[in-house]
Amino acid sequence: MLLSITTTREPATDLGYLLHKNPARLHSVPLSFGTAHIFYSEATPQRCTANLLLDINPVDLARTKQAAGEDIAYVNDRPYAASSFLSTAIAKVFGTALSGRCKDKPELAVSPIMLEVTITTLPCLEGEELIRRLFIPLGYDLDITSYKLDERFPEWGESPYYTVTIRGRKCIKELLAHLYVLIPVLDEEKHYWINQDEIDVLLRRGEGWLARHPERELIAARFLKRQRTLTDRALQRLMNGEGAEHSHNQLPGRGSAQKEEAWEESLSLREQRIRAIVAVLKEVGAKTVADLGCGEGNLLKVLLADKDFTALTGMDVSYRTLEKAHKKLKLEDMPSVQKERLQLFQGSLLYRDKRLQGYDAVVVSEVIEHLDEDRLKTFIRHVFGFLRPPALVITTPNREYNVNYPQLPAGEFRHADHRFEWSRSEFRHWAESAAKQYGYTVSIKPVGSLDPKTGAPTQLGVFSR
Ligand code: SAH
């Protein structure tokens, strides 16, 4: 995978200052998925070209992905195609330029200069028209070379890979931000799991141009892997003129997993839920507990205070939330005996993770409703089939109860990131079928104030092997 950046603005070798990479040297930067090499193929006062060569080993890549439970073939196009790997590499090796800084020539970083970029292999299934729709409104000239899928069999049609050159007068920061966002939009296959934090990334990189781009909806949707809730949220923030600095936390209850309590979550419901979970853990005699999707660690805090629990693990997909948990639990100041009982790490319920095996009990509280429904099968396979804890506690909202929240518009979920909320019979049906499939029994309990018609706000399933 090769990307080259050329300038003809004299002295062209200033490109080295802009990119913070000395033209006289070869720079090799290790990345988690391979190595990025930066080298200059020409460096004269009239013309200077920096190349970013991304070297990904497809076999290593397939092994790590397969170990994480994903399907990917050993022979894949990732080493050759411009993709989100390239964006990650750009952010890593040209991070300073991307942030608009230039130590030695600060005025250069903010001056638009003639820049030309060639991406040797840019994948776009929709064809070159989409490439034009994305780059032309940003003021670039384009050269696109298309290829036959196989020269010997023209009837097979066009290949989905293009060699693309874009040319324009841009600040280096703008140019890199455009590439950072638009390459994965064209390729549409992110190499990492995305969550709310990705909205911030999109808004930060899209600052100053995305809100005015005629294709902003398509860009947001594809950058956010077509996750509708994330896309809506991103567009709303974009059109409200919010930058990335305006964390979604400032919008109570909308789009923020951390603000779960916004609607219904009077402190007392959360407390009642924690109490109900602890009671179950005691009842089954669990000593070691993993809390998956632990959020800010409210349950862990209570468990930690109880000596009966000898080993506790909190896992969450959101790094930022884990940092908050870290603070809330005062991990820094904790005596080491105490600290040894607890570990926190980042992970996902949708990835098979050996570190989570062997616990007496696993808790998944108020998390499943954040997963897309078509991912629940993977969740069941991993938690019931792979982790197989002797006891498993799952809680989720009871949708029927929502009529008791007068401020909550009819038909809306309690939280913008909820993908669904289940009625009592829907949860029972799901729980019983998962239990049956993996040799568990299940009993379901109501948590919170019980309404005669609609039940309790939270439903809690206890699964025993
Ligand atoms: N269990 C906590 C937090 C619930 S909020 C409580 O009961 O208070 C939902 C949490 O699930 C969020 O912290 C979110 O980051 C996390 N989450 C969402 N999808 C996840 C996934 N696929 N894997 C792990 N955690 C996930």
UniProtKB/TrEMBL annotation:
Q: Which reaction does it catalyse?
A: small RNA 3'-end nucleotide + S-adenosyl-L-methionine = small RNA 3'-end 2'-O-methylnucleotide + S-adenosyl-L-homocysteine + H(+)
Q: List the CDD domains hit by this protein, alphabetically.
A: AdoMet_MTases
**What are the recorded GO MF terms, alphabetically?**
metal ion binding; RNA binding; small RNA 2'-O-methyltransferase activity
State the Pfam families in the record.
Hen1_L, Methyltransf_12
Question: Which superkingdom does the taxonomy of this entry point to?
Answer: Bacteria
User: According to the UniProt entry, what is the EC number of this protein?
Assistant: 2.1.1.386
According to the entry, every stretch annotated as the Hen1 N-terminal domain falls at 1-238
Per UniProt, the keywords (alphabetical) are: Magnesium, Metal-binding, Methyltransferase, RNA-binding, RNA-mediated gene silencing, S-adenosyl-L-methionine, Transferase
Q: Which cofactor does it need?
A: Mg(2+)
What is the protein name stated in its UniProt record? Small RNA 2'-O-methyltransferase
